[in-house]
Amino acid sequence: MTVPTGRRERKKAATRQKIADTALRLFLERGYEAVGIREVAAEADIAVTTLFSHFASKEALVFEQDADFERALTRAVTERAPGEPLVPALRREIHALVRHCTAEGAAPVQHMIDESPALRRYEESMRLRHAESLATALLADPARTATPLACRTLARFTVDAYALAREAPEPEAAVDEIFRMIEGAWGVAAGAGTGSGATGS
After folding, report:
1. Most buried among 72, 109, 119, 154, by the most CB within 10 A?
2. pLDDT (tens digit, 0 to 9) for every residue of the chain, 201 residues total?
3. 0.85 exceeded by the pTM?
């Protein structure tokens, strides 16, 4: 989670984390569909309105780090070092995301998501949103040599790489395999050897 700076921001972040932790505990104990928003608020000792000031929906409670992951993807483009190749920077962020979501203790949460149609729909919409944000960053990259379509395709493939790798027997090896294909395609789309080295390894 992003570290807040001011006292008010720290308090707000602590409340948000408390709500998310409480919700996840209840969901895992009793099942996602069996727990209502009011129960989460009561268990966290907050008002329902306070809960909704931090989370827009019940589904969002399960994906508490959604915004952090989205920012990390866009920063891989916007904050990479001058001359740093693009695809390896994206691969690094997907590796970090896969490690987080396949860490010890993550399996029950993923099983809960897989078993809930509402959570699966939310996760899919979240991936589409992340891909759109990443595409926007790619299109604004000063070193861009690829077409807008190529940028949107790279963004979608990058986000999908996470979903595919997470389900593989060896997730981190799968990330590398997928990104070798992505890198080859991006080299053709962006023009090998042009710009700031978009296809670097």
Report:
1. 154
2. 455 568 888 999 999 999 999 999 999 999 999 999 999 999 999 999 999 999 999 999 999 889 999 999 999 999 998 888 999 999 999 999 999 888 888 889 999 999 999 999 999 999 999 999 999 999 999 888 899 999 999 999 999 999 999 889 999 999 999 999 999 999 888 774 444 333 343
3. no
How many whole angstroms separate alpha carbon 153 and alpha carbon 156?
A: 5
95 domain-assigned: yes
| Domain carrying residue 43 | 7-61
Whether residues 115 and 176 share a domain: the answer is yes
Report whether 138 contacts 77 (CB < 8 A).
Answer: yes
CATH number at residue 164: 1.10.357
